[in-house]
Structures are given as structure tokens and as C-alpha cells.
Amino acid sequence: MATLTLIQAVNDALKTAMRTDPNVLVFGEDVGPKGGVFLATDGLTKEFGEKRCFDTPLSEDGIVGAAIGMATNGLKPIAEIQFQDFIFPAFDQIVSEAAKLRYRSGGQYTCPLVIRTPYGGGIRGGLYHSQSGEAYFCHTPGLKVVIPSTPYDAKGLLLASIDDPDPVLFLEPKALYRSVKGEVPEGRYTVDLSTLRTAREGTGVTVFCYGAMVPVCLRAAEQAAAKGIECHVVDLRTLLPLDEEGVIDAAKRTGRVVVVHEAPRFCGFGGEISAILAENCIEWMEAPIVRVTGFDTPFPNTLEHHYMPDDRRVLDAVEHVWNY
Amino acid sequence: MASTRTSAQPKLTKAQEAQALLRHMLTIRVLDERMLKLQRAGRVGFAGSATGLEASIIGSAWALRPQDWLWSGLREGGAAVMRGMPLADYIAQMYCNSNDSAKGRQMCNHFQHKGTNYPSWSSVIGTQIVHGVGAAYAAKLRGVDEVHAIYGGDGSTSSNGFHSGLNFAGVWKVPCYFVIIDNGWAISVCSRNQTAAKSYADKAAAYGLPGFEVDGNDVSAVVAASRKCHALALKHQPSLLVLKSYRMMGHSSSDDPTKYRDEKEVAAWQKRDPINAFEKKLVAAKLIDKKHRAKVEAEIAAMIDAEIHHQEAAPKMALKTLVEDVYAEVPRHLRRQYNSFIAVAERLGHATPGDGAFPL
Amino acid sequence: MAKIDFKLPDIGEGIAEGEIVKWLVKAGDTVKEHQAVVEVMTDKATVEVPSPAAGVIGELRATEGQTVPVGSVIFTLETTGAAPVMMSHGGGHAAPAKAAPAAAPAHAPAAAAAPAAAGGKVLEFKLPDIGEGIAEGEIVKWLVKAGESVKEHQAVVEVMTDKATVEVPSPANGVVAELRAQAGQTVPVGSVIFTLQLAGAAPVMIAHHAPAAAAAPAKAAAPVAAPAPVAVAAASTAHVSGLDSKIPAVPSARRLARELGIELGAVAGSGRHGVIRRADIEAYAAAGAPKSAAPAPSSAAQAAPARPAAAPVSVAAAGGQTRIPFRGVRKKISEAMVRSKYTAPHFTVVEELDVTDLITLREKAKAMGAEVGIKVTFMPFIMKAVASGLAKYPQLNAQLDEAAQEIVRFGNVNLGIAMDTDQGLIVPIVKNVESKSVLQLAAELADLADRTRAGKVKPDELKGSTFSISNAGNIGGTLATPIINFPDAAILGVHRIVKRPGVVETPQGDKIEVRQYMNLSCSVDHRIADGADGARFLVHLKKLLETPGLLAL
Predict the structure, then answer these.
(1) Among C256, C306, C301, which residue's Cα sits nearest to residue A285?
(2) Is A306 known to be catalytic?
(3) Which parts of chain B register pLDDT below 70?
């Protein structure tokens, strides 16, 4: 067991996977000798050589397209997109090709690849180093979308994603890369995809969150507890395919729901949670389903700390539904 | 996955090779003619032909061994048939029926055949070019003997995939070659308006690759050029082979080329019909007689017609195929969606045995 | 062998029609599969259409130069071998044989929907919007019969709308196939009124977006969706369901209320804006009966731990104002009265009754009742008179079912008797008044009043009134214009009895005597009944109550 930051846990997962399966390889911009702009791939080229961890030309379309080709021919590629903000040239390859290959080929061809990318705000990166685009990809059947919030989950979910026979978009909350530390077992283990994690048990208000919002919600929950409101904080972990049953059960537990995400509000993932609950357990709802989200604006630099939901805003929402 | 077949092809005599090439070109010709008739009669929904492109398609794929992969851009279905994709698969896909290996999910003309390494392709132009490069990289890394022939049309040279693919191939030095069949038209946009480069082959230089331009209607020239590119690929030197030809028909059954093309241009290319030219050459060389072509065409037509009738009797598509193959397993939310749907479908009498609900 | 009706296919994506350029065969020609049969020109291209199978051409069904829609039969073919499988029109795949998988079908599926008879398509003619925004029309008179030949522009039917009576002409040459509406019938715009076998090409009809079912642009008010017309008590209507949807309650409260069989209207909400919370339902259920409208913070706190109290408190503010939250009972009454007054156009008729003899009778009845322990007031007599009056004037014992556009007249008389209690205005109901004697009514009324004041009345005693009586006379006032207990058709107000000098007619001439007078006011929903009805009803009551012996008849 070691105490690792989230980024170290990612690195550990990559090394573990590459050690156990010679078909796993890692590539992207600056991931080779430099080890990646966040050091996620630190040491990989040294240990596994340039054929298995290498730099690519500056072409997200090429990175993902090549990964798809590799995946159809016996490899398990892990492509890195340097910032999620830069994934859009690869959007076509992800949505038109990776997501649809199995379906359109009747299962003859499959795409077991992982695309890793740092996402979300919190590092003063402005519009193009802070976006949370999970909603674009959750709207694509055939993809899986996974977001860890702890070092333990980062390693376990990444290893599970690498094992998964379908294309996985692994979004790493960059705000947590170094700010979150946790115990991480050595060697191989996996955390199942499509399972949520109860980060804090409670019977008063259910708070759904993921990524960098998980610690925010836990802080808010502590403050709520001081006011006599016990929050049940749920880390969704896999957005697609979602653990729908788990979400519904967690909501029914309290009947009061708050959903928190950094991404903009309109057509954000919170809307999907709200709809699922409205369809499946509206009669258990004691109050409206409330979302605490980023604003419907591009991501600002100076006012970033106002843009991103903080414990104060989450607490307000918790109290609102509690008192409704 | 890698084929278990050996790389050696049976040795053919000159006559055998010539007759085989002719037969394969005629197969495309007759298939196209029949598929178009089916479409006009309302028996299949859509058909795109390769009339005039037979030499480019057959000739360029002739160099491929069973373990090599052919990444299709659009009109290379005839090459897949040549390499062993059964006619049944081809026609089932045209009918998009329950015999289709893609389970009726793709629109017509989107063939695939795992057994002969002819991967599934989308309708998005150029994406396959990068896939082929990645797959070639995989062959290189895994140390398997494969060459990846990656096809596209003149239009595809403007796509993102062409740029990314050729660029990566050059940097990575993978066992592949690119075949651009320049048939003069990307639907209604002529080649002249696709690029300011004097020849598509010139583009190779930008990526550090050798580029060749060849008369796509001369099947022998095409065979020779693609053998050269194949050999380069075996040495991990990607190259670009541009075949100049002409799309005699419209882009597809929905396109009327008389609206945007000069009939004189079509007539000029008609004189250069690749099958006529090759037949003439073989007759002159006494490798075939004058009756040979008609006989082969009749045989092919009979096979195709028989297969058409067989495919028309395919059983109904199972409704479960709607939600299968999205992922390796059908996830719970999809099972619920399907179960709600099938409850209504059963009530309306649309369901058949096997269509029933998933356990949750 | 099969006979196929060959329909023009969708030659290019989304082609809707094609023009027959040239037939390449004649009727009777033998054709091979794939042989070109006809040249067709579409937006996208001119193409040759091949025969789908080997056989003999039957009929050519379209002429050169004619434009036909995709899907219409252009020729028929008698096949010599198996019938081909044709794609379903608009479908993207070949429709498989309906018969057993291996064999070719005896009859190609495509033939199934071939239009009948010679000539062209059958047009379904829909009643157009003749004037701007007309929603319906009444068929006045058909000017043609089924089977009759008509020319384009020839008048086919007379239709009466709000705006005018007009003649509707045929849109094309053809033969009238079916008349689909009858003279005197009112049909919504957009419904098919006749079908026409077209002789030629189909005319272009403007796509009509038919309005939904109801002809008149009705308010779509559910006939009985009234919230409780009187605060804490449940709805006093014959129907139950629609009521609760107007009362704000959180979803969990609704579910619990439904499971426990509690009417939401009976529960006061402690949530913001008066929303009923689950805790309120739980508290109501625990108490077992309609309780005080003021939410009880303590019981709410027991139901949900650490729930902050939210009782409506009046806050004495500066400047001599007192503010009371507008919720609970008061709010319920408000909603009910608004609903009644603003939906039903009220008119009130008033009659003055000389009840001197009624008072005498009542004294005697009171004594008789005392012998058997029954308290007798004036009300049972009035109720009896009302039952008789409603038998004679059933239009006042009714309701308007707006959704069905029907007036419902009730066969029995269930009288809601308004009572003022500590909990506010409650209207329990005495059922089947027409079949009960005055003493029975007195007994029932007394029992009902006791239980109502004690808060022990049952929910089903609070709903199902067909008519109501409001007696504020014991408090005061000689006249009022009562608000109807919606959705009843009418309500009777009973007012104070006063002594006044009155004129009595005797054989010896008019005399002045001390007489006792009482006013009855009757408010009526003018949508359902008219002034004359109300007046006559009161006249009938007057007759009976002034000579109360007549009640025995």
C-alpha cells in the first residue's frame, strides 16, 4: 500500500497495465521522454521503450484514429489527449468511428481503446484548459465515460477501462491531480465500471457528484451536518453506462436530491439525473431536484472560483431542499 | 486479426492471371449493373457503382496476400469479392437483411469481411486512412507480417484523415501504402476543384513519402505499380499510389451526373473503358477468344441472380439487434429501453420468436 | 405465379414522385427479370425502371407525360416464376416474405395495398378551415350521392359554421366514393367528410393540422376538478379523481395520501406557498380526522426528525398592520369561491315567504320529535320542499360536464347543508332526501351536525351533493346572494325570519295581522338553467312552505 496523489495513481495504473500486457501501449503529445505535461506518463518510455510509449505529431485526429486502427489489430492503445479542451479534432473519430465500430460491424470489429485526458477547471487555465465536456460524449451510445475522484479509484478504474472491450473516455479531474492523496494498493486491481461509490452516508439529502466536485460536496456535507442535515454523498464515477439502479436507490433513500457538476448547466449531466429520477421515483421526491453547476458561459479565468460550484453554493442547495 | 493463411499465393501462369483479372473486373461490372437494376426496381434502397474503375480496384488489390488488410474508402467491394468475400455476403449487405454480417445496421454498399481482412468502414470520408496506419503500426509492434492497403478517393485527399494518416505513417514508418483512386469527381466536385496541386501524387512529398501516378484504366500498369508499393510497405516504407481513372456513372443511384458533367468528357473516357481495353489486349495475345467475355459475363450474371433470389428469402431481422453490439454486453439501461419497446411491439404483432424481453 | 402491382419506387433518397417519360413495353409483352420496362424522370435523374421478375405485362397504369407519386401502381405483371420481394414503400430494407421463409410468397406483399378500381387514387376530403380559424362545421345538406360523378369545382355539400353557411366544392374530377358525415352532424375541421375516386392526378391539398378532439375551443376544464369548495372538508362533488391535481403537494405527499386514501383537499400544507409535505399527510393520518387548519409544528416535528417548524404566524409589524399568511383553510375557501364564481355565471332570484303557518307546524313537530329524541328545526321542511321542487325542476339538480359537453341531471337529491364550525365552513351531505320523511331528515341532520362540529364526519359524507342549502338566517341577514357549491347547478339561501305586519286575505276582506316572513334566495349557474327556472322553483317552494300541509302530498 502506498499513499499516492491522483496523478501518481494514474501513472501507477499505466505501468501496471504495461507490465502485465505487452499489447498495451501509450502515446500522445509529449508523453514520451517528457513524461506528459502533468507527468502522468513519467518513466514509461524509460521502462518500456519508444515503441510502447511515444510522442505523436500534433494531431488529435491522428492520435485517436491511429488508436482505433491499433485496437482493431490486436493492441490495447491508451491515447492521451493533452487537455480535454483539445479533443475536438478527434471528435469525429471518437463519435463516428470508435463508438460505432462494434455496432456497425455486427460485432465483427471492436475497439478496446482508452482515451485519457485531463478535464475540468481549477488551475487558472481559462477557456481552453478548463472545460468539462463529458455531456458531449455521454450523448454517444457505444462510448463509456469514466471519471475518478480518488487515487484508489483512479488506478482501479483506469485498469478496468483498459480491460474493457469497448472504447472508454477516461476523464481525469486535473484540479485533483496533486491535491488529493490516498491509499493505493500495489499491483493489479480493478474497480468495476458502472458502479457508483457512496462517499458519505446520510439519510437527509442525497448529493450526486463526480470528479473535482466530490471533495467540494464532502466539505459542504460536513457543514450541513453541523446544522443537523446528514448528506448522502454519491460519487457517480461512471457516467456512461450509468449505475441507474444505484442512482435511483440513493435518491429514494432521502427524497431530497442535489446534483453537482462543474460543467455548464443547460443540457448538462445533471439534467439526465433529474430526468431519470423524475421518470423512476418522482413519488419519493420531497422537494424539487436541484442542480448546482457551472454557469452557461465559456470558462472564465479571473472569476474561476465563482464559476465553479463551491461548498457554499452546494450547502445552500442542500439547505433549500432540506427545508422545502 | 492475423490470418493463418500463408503469404504465398498459388503461382499462376500468364494466361491464368490474365483471365482471373478479367473475370474479377467483369464481376464488378455485372454486379454493379444488377445492383442498380435492383435499386431502380425498388428491391434495394441504394446502390453505388464502380463502373469504369474496375482496373484500378482489381489491379491495385491484386498484390495483396490473404493476411494483408484492405481498408476501403468507398468502392472497393469488388476487391473484397476478389479476395474471397462471398457473393452472398455482398448481396446480403445490399439487402441489409438478416444474413448481413453487419446485421442490417449500415446502409447499402457498406461491405465488410473479417475473414479476408476487409474492415468495416463508415460513411465519413478519410477516417479510415488513419485507422489503417494505426493497424499497420500494430502489425509492426506485434511483429506480424501484414501489409495494410489503405484506399480513398480524390475527395478524401482533402480530409483530415488523409493528412493525419499520411503524416503519421511517414513518422512511424509502418507497413502500409495508400491507394488514391482519382476518378475525376467527388460527387459533383471535379478533381480540379479538389486541390491546387498538379497531381495528388505530389502530396506524398509533404509527408516524406514517395508518390506515384499511374493510368488507372490499364490494369497491367496498376498491378505493376501496386506490387511496387506493396514491396515498399514490406520494408516499412509507406507510399502513395494515385490511380487516374473515371467514374462512368453517377456518384450513386441518387445522383444524376448529366446535371454537372459534360457528356463529351464521359464519351472520351468511354473509349478508354478498362475492360474493353484489357479484353482487346488478351484477345490480341491469344490468351482468350472473342466469345470468352460474354460467356464469363453470363456465368457471373447467373450466379448473381441466383444469389439475389436466395437473399430475398432471408428471415426477418430479429428485433433484439436494435440494442445489441452497442457494447460487448447489453447494459441495463438499454435492456430496459428494449423491454419497454418490445412490450408495445408484441402487442402490435411486430415481434417474432426470439425477440422477447431481456432479464433485468 | 403471382400477380404483382408494381409501384413506383423511391428511386433516389426521398423522391416523392416521378414523371413517366416513355414506356418500353406494351401490355401483353413477355419480359425478363431486370429488363427495362419504363423510363421515369425525377428531380434527381431520368432512369430506366426494370421489371422485378420474369413474366407478362398486364396493364400499364400510367400514361406517358403523367406524374405519379412514389408508391402508386404504374403497371401490373403476371410473374412466371417466384414473385420478387419488394421493399416496403418508404422503408430502407427489403420486406421479407410474409409466408414461410423458404418459399416465395404466393402474393407479393407490395400488392396488398394497391388502390382498388380503375383510374387513380382515392382522395380523402377533409373539411377545410372555411373561414379564418373555424374549428368545426355542421353538415347542412349533401348535394351529391355516393357513386355520383363530379367535376372539379362542383358543389358537393353545404356546411354551416359560426361565420356562414357555404357550399364546399369538389377539388377534382372523379366519382364520389363515400359520404362520411350525416346531415345535421357537426364535424371538426380536418375530419374526412367524403372520399373521392380521382379521375386524374391528385389535387394539391393544403396540409391541415387538425385540432384535437373537442370541437369548440373548450377550456378543457375537467368537469370536477374543483378544489374543495369549502376549506378543510373534501370535495362535495359526485366525481372524485380530478380534484387533487389542483392542490400543490410534493410528490411524496401525493403518493402517501393516495396510499392512505386521504383527500389532499382535507390536509393543510405546511410547506412554502402552502405546499403539502409528506409530514403533513402523516400528521393528518395520525390525528385521524380533519384537524385545525393551522399546521401543528410539534406533530410535524415528530413525523420528520429535525424538521424546522413552519407555522403561519402573524407578525405584528410597525404601523398597526397585522399580516397573516394566506394559506390553509382560508386559502382553500378562496380557491373554491374563485372557482365557483368565475366559472359559473351566477344569477340570484329571491322570493319572500309567509312562514307563519310553517312556524306553527314546526312547533307541533318539535314536540312530536322530542318524544322520540329527535330535534326538529325548519331545515327538514325546507329540505323536503327543495326535493319536491327539484323533482319538478330537474334542471336545477344538475351539473355541467364540460369535457363531455353534456348537462348531467341527477335522479336523486343529495343536499349539501352548509355548516359553520370551529374548523370553518363545512358542507356535509344528506343523501336521497326525496325518499325520506321530515322526521328522518331531522334526525339525520341533527346527527350530521353533531358529528361535523366534533370533526367526526366521514369523507364520503362530504362529497356527492347535487344541490346545496346555505342557512345563515340564524346568524342574521334578510337576504344574500350565495355562491354556488361548485359544480352544483344551484344553491338555496335561507334567511332570517322576521315578524312584520302583513296583509291576510279573508272572505271578509283584507286584514292586517302580525305575520312571519322569511326570504329564500336561489343562485343559479346560468350556463345550465335560466332565470325562469329559478323563479319557478322558488315559487314552488313558496307554495309548499306557506301551506306546509302540502308537503305531505
Answers:
(1) C256
(2) no
(3) 1-9
